[in-house]
Each structure stands twice: as C-alpha cells, then as structure tokens.
C-alpha cells in the first residue's frame, strides 16, 4: 500500500513536492487554503492572512534559466526576468502538464498537525483540516510543510524611539502594493534587501524626497 503524504501549500515548493511524491509511488494530498495555486507568486490587491504578499511590480530577481524547474523550462518568449503574473501562469502550466491539480484540495486550511498516539511504532501524523467551516481529520505517513518563510512580517517598532508619536504613515513592505501612495511625500525606506531597493526606486518617481 502506497504511503500517504500530506503537503501544505501550492507554491513553487508545494507543486514540486506533489510531483516528486507521485514519481516515487507515494500518494500525496496537498492542502491549499486559497482558491488558487501559486503561493507567493499570486498577486492580490489586499493582504491575505496566512500567506505571503507581493507588490504589483514584482519580477523574479534571478533569470528565467535559474528560476525554472529543471525539467520544465519557461516558455522561450518569456523575458529573462519574469513578472509575477507570468510566473504564476508558468506554475499553472507546470501543474497542468504533470497532472498535479487532482492532488490538490483548494479552500482547505490546515488547522493542526500532531503525532499519532502510536507514532513511535507507525511514524504517522494526524492532520486536521477545515473546508467551508467543517473540520476533518486524516492520518498520513508523512507531512511536507511548503508554506515558505515570508508570511509573518518583522516590524521591530521597539527599535524606533518616538514611533508612537510619529504623525505620518509607516508600514511593512508586506502591506505595499502600488507606488501611488508615495506621491508628493517625504519617504524613508529602512532596509536595502530586494524589497527595500525595489520600493525605493518606485517611490523615487513620485515622492517629493526619499532617503534609504
């Protein structure tokens, strides 16, 4: 009897995990809390609880030859650095090509993962999920958590004395979607990672002045 594997999330890692399980003769069941695959690469106008968020202008920061799955290259007409909308379409093509959709349960939230009482003997896990308000429990031989690490923002307000009396607006890059919010404003960007530099460049076109 094939081993049952629970996979959490349908982003880049989640989809690859489904495919690898199928290739190894395992039976994967993938749980996706939203109604569409794509994980980080699925842009939404509003920040959604429990999933990563990206801004409208995001493109891949590595070229398409380095960003693709090894056995499924990007279409030749895609640009070298792929916009998020095309990256999402690529992931959908990947899922369809390898028949991964039949293994995915959409709009299903994983509420709890615990070791079974006989874990020392069976190595099995109990996974509790919720779909349309109804909870269900199932037993799996393995669990693969593919939710990424960009879900919870780090905003160390204690490190900024006076922030409580600041009369302007402050927010984490997770909340950023479009550059028009910076029009004619004085903007300070803290951090020079990928998001910080992207946002600083976009803000520079509209802001009155910008500091990094």
UniProtKB/TrEMBL annotation:
<dbReference type="InterPro" id="IPR020946">
    <property type="entry name" value="Flavin_mOase-like"/>
</dbReference>
<dbReference type="InterPro" id="IPR036188">
    <property type="entry name" value="FAD/NAD-bd_sf"/>
</dbReference>
<dbReference type="GO" id="GO:0050661">
    <property type="term" value="F:NADP binding"/>
</dbReference>
<dbReference type="GO" id="GO:0050660">
    <property type="term" value="F:flavin adenine dinucleotide binding"/>
</dbReference>
<keyword id="KW-0560">Oxidoreductase</keyword>
<keyword id="KW-0256">Endoplasmic reticulum</keyword>
<keyword id="KW-0521">NADP</keyword>
<keyword id="KW-0472">Membrane</keyword>
<dbReference type="GO" id="GO:0005789">
    <property type="term" value="C:endoplasmic reticulum membrane"/>
</dbReference>
<keyword id="KW-0274">FAD</keyword>
<dbReference type="InterPro" id="IPR050346">
    <property type="entry name" value="FMO-like"/>
</dbReference>
<dbReference type="GO" id="GO:0004499">
    <property type="term" value="F:N,N-dimethylaniline monooxygenase activity"/>
</dbReference>
<keyword id="KW-0503">Monooxygenase</keyword>
<dbReference type="GO" id="GO:0034899">
    <property type="term" value="F:trimethylamine monooxygenase activity"/>
</dbReference>
<keyword id="KW-0812">Transmembrane</keyword>
<dbReference type="InterPro" id="IPR000960">
    <property type="entry name" value="Flavin_mOase"/>
</dbReference>
<comment type="similarity">
    <text>Belongs to the FMO family.</text>
</comment>
<protein>
    <recommendedName>
        <fullName>Flavin-containing monooxygenase</fullName>
        <ecNumber>1.-.-.-</ecNumber>
    </recommendedName>
</protein>
<dbReference type="InterPro" id="IPR002253">
    <property type="entry name" value="Flavin_mOase_1"/>
</dbReference>
<keyword id="KW-0285">Flavoprotein</keyword>
<keyword id="KW-1133">Transmembrane helix</keyword>
<comment type="function">
    <text>Broad spectrum monooxygenase that catalyzes the oxygenation of a wide variety of nitrogen- and sulfur-containing compounds including xenobiotics. Catalyzes the S-oxygenation of hypotaurine to produce taurine, an organic osmolyte involved in cell volume regulation as well as a variety of cytoprotective and developmental processes.</text>
</comment>
<dbReference type="Pfam" id="PF00743">
    <property type="entry name" value="FMO-like"/>
</dbReference>
